[in-house]
Each structure stands twice: as structure tokens, then as C-alpha cells.
Amino acid sequence: MSNTFCVTISECKTNGDKATLGFVVANAALGSDKDTMVFLSADGVWAAVQGEVDKINEGEPFAPLKELVEKFTNNGGKILVCSPCMKKRGLTEDRLVTGAKPAGGAALVEWLANGSPCVGY
Amino acid sequence: MAGFPRHWDFDEVYDSFDRGCGDFIIDLKAVMADLAAGAVVMIASRDAGAPVEIPAWCRLTGHRLLDAQPPFFLVRKRDA
Fold it and tell me: Which CATH architecture does the domain made up of B12-76 adopt?
């Protein structure tokens, strides 16, 4: 059984439900002792942007997205943010939440090529 | 807390109320981290997915599900 896990999220403003679910599952993986990485691409990058992540709250039974993201990073979860997707939206690294960092596709490919299962939202 | 099997013996209680999935599991990890190896925790979870979720979490983590009478679950922390 792999000790790593990956969640890819490609929606946030366009579908807050998907971004929320992605981080809920990422927290389930982390809580199950999996070294977990969330890869944000396309519209999903907004989930790691200060001031934007605060705007997503799907309501009960889900915690606000900001709380889910903070719980993920505070417990050692990794967030990689598609750098060209950031550039397209005029985003710079200083706008990302603590624990998130820009990365390219090779970082995702490396994580998966090392045997990590992955689920996409 | 009412309703749990009276013959169960445990060291700690964790009540997740109706929270489920990752929101609950990530907090459960922290609860287990504070326990000594071999300690037993009685988990209460009223989420509809808990009867499937908690056994799966035990298989993933190596903690042992000693008994289950939803919404109550008796889990022993792994040795290492």
C-alpha cells in the first residue's frame, strides 16, 4: 500500500463544492497517515490565495474552505500551485497562503510516478 | 455520554458528534497522537458514513477496531 496520496483540484470560484470536497478528502488522507499533496490547477488555484479562500463556505456539514486548508497545512500537508495557472490570473507567490508554493507539472508527475494514488476534483 | 456498551473498557473518549469524513479523521489523528501505544479509545460518531469510515481508517493506520456498535466504536492504538 502506498504511503503517499494526491488530490488534484481544478475548481474553486467556479465550484466551491469541489474545492471543499477536495480538501476534505485530503484531510482524510492526512488523518490516515498518508503523506498528502494537493495540487491546485486552473480555477483551483484560488483555494490557496489569501483573501480568496475566505470567500468559499459551502455551509453545513462542511467547514469553511479556509479552515480546511489551514487544518491541512498545519498537519503537514503539502500544497503545490500550478505556476502557469497563477501567471494567467496575475497571481504572485506572495499572495499564496502559508504552506502553499508554486510548482510546475513535473512536480505533480514526480509525485505520481513514485506510486502515489490520486483523486481529482 | 449515554448509550455506549457498558462492558467496554477504555482510556479515552472522543466524540465527533455528527462530523464525518476528513473533517473528523484529521482530528482523530491528533487524538491518537496524544495516546500511549496500546491505549483504547471509545469513539462516538453519528455521521452516517462512520460504520464504513472508521474500519477503513483502522486498516489504513494499523489501529485495531476492537468492537463496533454504531454510533460507538472501540479502537486500540497500534503498538508502534
Answer: 2-Layer Sandwich (3.30)
